[in-house]
């Protein structure tokens, strides 16, 4: 399983509710969550088969900005 992290502008529960139907259309997502308390509004997605590009496309289709989160030094080690 692969975990992706993205910086977004999904900043409240209403925004999460708006993006939910788009995320549910992606077969192969095991789980997803948006940390709205984080200043970068981090979307974390775990999947066996969905690509980073497919996630980005769906979030943009829902009307939100999204970009891959920058990896820290420790993330590159593992």
From TrEMBL:
<dbReference type="Pfam" id="PF00403">
    <property type="entry name" value="HMA"/>
</dbReference>
<dbReference type="InterPro" id="IPR036163">
    <property type="entry name" value="HMA_dom_sf"/>
</dbReference>
<dbReference type="GO" id="GO:0046872">
    <property type="term" value="F:metal ion binding"/>
</dbReference>
<feature type="domain" description="HMA">
    <location>
        <begin position="1"/>
        <end position="67"/>
    </location>
</feature>
<protein>
    <submittedName>
        <fullName>Heavy-metal-associated domain-containing protein</fullName>
    </submittedName>
</protein>
<dbReference type="InterPro" id="IPR006121">
    <property type="entry name" value="HMA_dom"/>
</dbReference>
